[in-house]
Design brief:
InterPro entries: Cell_wall_metabolism_enzyme, Dup_hybrid_motif, LysM, LysM_dom_sf, M23ase_b-sheet_dom
Oligomer: single chain
Largest sheet: 10 strands, antiparallel
Shape: elongated
Helix content: 10-25%
GO molecular function, one term: metalloendopeptidase activity
Organism: Paracandidimonas soli
Radius of gyration: 28 Å
Number of strands: 12
CATH architecture of the largest domain: Distorted Sandwich
Protein name: Murein DD-endopeptidase MepM/ murein hydrolase activator NlpD
Family: Belongs to the E.coli NlpD/Haemophilus LppB family.
Length: 279
Amino acid sequence: METGNGERFLVIFWFANVILRLLPVSSLSFFRFSPCVAAPRGGLSALHLRSLRLCLAAVCLALLAACGTTGQKAVGPGQYRVVAGDTLTQIARKHGQSVDSLMRMNNLRNPNNIKVGQVLRVGSASSGPAASGSLPDAGSGTVVRGQRQAPAAAVPRTTIGLAWPAEGSAVRSSTGPSPHGVYISNKAGTPVKAVAAGTVVYSGNGLRGYGNLIIVRHASDYISVYAHNRSLAVSEGQSVKQGQKVAEMGSTDINRTVLYFELRYNGKAVDAMRYLPKR
């Protein structure tokens, strides 16, 4: 059974204090040179012993802090360590999973029964820690206007045949969550379709900046993202075919009617325009 930080401190300090009491006062005379304890030549008085114990407590706290920062092992591929404020729903959304799938993978009976520090499986080990399609909040500060970062697109080892997700005017993303995404403009209610066959792993509006959002997982570690929809036509866990309607174009969490489309491989954005067929 693991002990908490408070228990570790008490154990360390208790042992050190016992040793200090057992040692003869004369053997501690070297502490007269200590910056913490200025002892007289004849030995240590009760006051100086008390001061020494305070110094000892400070040392124990420092050791405890050092142990606390190195005690946790890094999580492995396909795993996630629960932090304060996490819910299973949030973890599922961030990793392109459904709550039910996380409960099955981790043998959880109650979605509310997760603890800080608990390590959960969130995807296959071959896919990496956020491979299932982790998406940051569009307004999370990952990208700062005026200092926009443009990370290199992932280079997939496999290919995937796509269909266009919607009719309309398409432009590369310059202000969206990823510079590798695509904005498709058309009128509200325009059908939004799955670019390839797959399984819906997210259907909702819980990720800030994406509005009504659909995420579909495809074969070969690809996922597709459809954001800002007016309405959603599929639910989590549902299988979809290529060209099947999954949503209707809208303007949720954005100031114009548009579909934001993004393609990801192993959790990283790829240049969607390179994979969509030429019109």
